[in-house]
User: Which sequence fits this backbone?
């Protein structure tokens, strides 16, 4: 057996997230924000680290104090930061979020001149692909070059070296010049992917042929409404090469689709919602953790559902990811044997 340096390496965006401290207050009336870590692949790396895995993030930050914030906080979490580049003349992104539970979370991305979109092939060429068990690509990294080329290069190398490859669809419509290009580009990488993770809307968006198929609610950029034949799209994805597609369904849980097998449906958990942002990232961390333990799909997804359920009861994402002890305690309290 090879000796692995990292259990999971994630690639893509990172940011400072400013979440309203005034819960339930309309966005124009918010007075104070808390500063946290954010970004889909960053959240997954932190979540997996808190569960006990050795993790690293591949990304870029600006040569600014916000970049200092991200690097310092990641180091405190124990996530490897040596693959995070500094990009002079760019900015480390920010996200602002209002919190009006149970279902209103106005969100604004500040990603103009985002450093992580300047990630290059040279930045990822030094990754020790032979010593990585799992490689996860966040879909937003494919939205534009040079990040797109860097992501494709890293994915090819990871696949060639036998890494288990994951794609978190992470569809953020406003990050793509034309939201239809999300599907055009993302479908190209499916033959290199072992496991795809996404919501029903993200799966449908992969096959949208008209901009009108993708409706982006104002201030709800994380929740596009996409119309289409979900089951046909699931079949198309599985015929493209992935060994599994995991469809997240919010409070209802998640379903695993495997080529030639019956769907594996795993119910979610009933909890009091504070903030839904980050639930999918906690889910991905839990899923990958379970699979690396050798668990079957049902047990892995149940564990992942618990991770997601815990995070929605908390105010933020990365800084609030649960530990394995917390997840096991939650499962013990919510599963009837």
Assistant:
């Amino acid at each position: 057996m090879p000796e692995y340096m990292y259990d999971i390496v994630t690639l893509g965006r990172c940011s400072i997230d400013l979440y309203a401290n005034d819960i339930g207050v309309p966005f124009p009336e918010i007075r104070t924000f808390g500063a946290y870590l954010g970004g889909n692949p960053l959240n997954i790396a932190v979540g997996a680290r808190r569960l006990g895995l050795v993790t690293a993030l591949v990304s870029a930050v600006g040569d600014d104090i916000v970049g200092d914030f991200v690097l310092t906080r990641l180091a405190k979490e124990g996530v490897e930061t040596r693959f995070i580049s500094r990009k002079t003349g760019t900015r480390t992104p920010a996200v602002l979020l209002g919190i009006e539970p149970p279902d209103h979370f106005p969100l604004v991305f500040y990603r103009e001149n985002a450093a992580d979109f300047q990630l290059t092939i040279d930045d990822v060429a030094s990754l020790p692909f032979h010593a990585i068990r799992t490689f996860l690509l966040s879909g937003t990294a494919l939205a534009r070059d040079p990040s797109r080329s860097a992501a494709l290069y890293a994915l090819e190398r990871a696949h060639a070296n036998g890494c288990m490859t994951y794609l978190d669809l992470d569809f953020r419509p406003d990050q793509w010049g034309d939201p239809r290009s999300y599907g055009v580009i993302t479908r190209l990488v499916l033959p290199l992917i072992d496991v795809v993770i996404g919501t029903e809307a993200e799966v449908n968006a992969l096959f949208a042929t008209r901009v009108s198929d993708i409706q982006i609610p104002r201030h709800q950029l994380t929740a596009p409404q996409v119309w289409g034949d979900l089951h046909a799209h699931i079949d198309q994805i599985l015929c493209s090469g992935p060994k599994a597609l995991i469809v997240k369904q919010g409070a209802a849980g998640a379903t695993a689709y495997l080529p030639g097998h019956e769907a594996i449906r795993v119910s979610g958990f009933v909890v009091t919602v504070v903030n839904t942002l980050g639930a999918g990232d906690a889910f991905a961390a839990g899923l990958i953790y379970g699979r690396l333990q050798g668990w079957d799909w049902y047990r892995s997804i149940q564990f992942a559902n618990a991770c997601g359920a815990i995070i929605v009861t908390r105010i933020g994402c990365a800084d609030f990811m649960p530990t394995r002890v917390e997840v096991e305690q939650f499962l013990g309290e919510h599963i009837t044997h």
Remarks:
- The longest helix spans residues 297-311.
- DSSP finds ten helices and 15 strands in the chain.
- Residues 61 and 67 are 5 Å apart (CA to CA).
